[in-house]
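User: I'm putting together notes for a lab meeting next week and I want to include a structural view of one of the chains we've been expressing. I don't have a solved structure, so I'd like a prediction I can at least talk through. The sequence is below, exactly as it appears in our construct file.
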Amino acid sequence: MRLAVISDIHGNLLALEAVLADIRTRGVDGTVNLGDLAAGPLWPRETVELLDTLGLPTVRGNHDRWMGDRPLDKLPPAARFEHAALTEAQRTALHALPATLDVTGEVLGVHGTPTDDSTYLTEDSHDNRLMPAARALLVERLGAAMAKQVVLCGHSHRQSVTQVPGGPLILNPGTVGCPVFADLPVASMGEHRSPHARYAVLTRRDGRWGAELFALAYDWDAAAAQARTNGFPRWAEALATGAVA
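Assistant: Thanks for the context. Below is the predicted structure for the 245-residue chain, given as structure tokens.
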């Protein structure tokens, strides 16, 4: 079994197209999307329209949920841009996505943790940087998902593979199109990252699970130019460099 895993596209159509093209060369059996599809000052509607043609099993991210249950004045600027760009039907469809996804009986897909799409699963925030969470806290966040063999998660935009002793392999594929969420001073702004489009392939071979992590070059200068044209210079910096000063 080979399963491509994508997450946190954030409306970056160019990065998504690069990732989808690469996935087609990997001989996978399917692709799972872990949410936050369109929140960003780039191509929200076009991204949702492309994903609609693919029909991928998709988990609802916190930004997808906010399209239905958060007032417009409580949204960060990039999410307000997304709200304006999408149709009411598209916003409703994002909100209706499932909070978790039973990929197989052994593999669970979530956005943040199994019970909270706004909490990091394997990290904690310290001084605007993400640090590994303590083992006891990680086990607490997993809850009943400790019984799974694999948990797929996103939200932190940080690519990683973590084996929990006595529990599942946790795979975060990283972010397709948003190395740093540049609207607010959030965890990861103090980190050095890169502008690459990221995803992963989960593989089961001889009864064991492993993962391949990919970081793809794409035309991030064009993505940055789109953000700048739409009035988001901090997003342009993040997209072009992978960091925000």
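A couple of points you could mention at the meeting. The longest helix spans residues 13-23. The first strand starts at residue 2 and ends at 6.

User: Perfect, that's what I needed.
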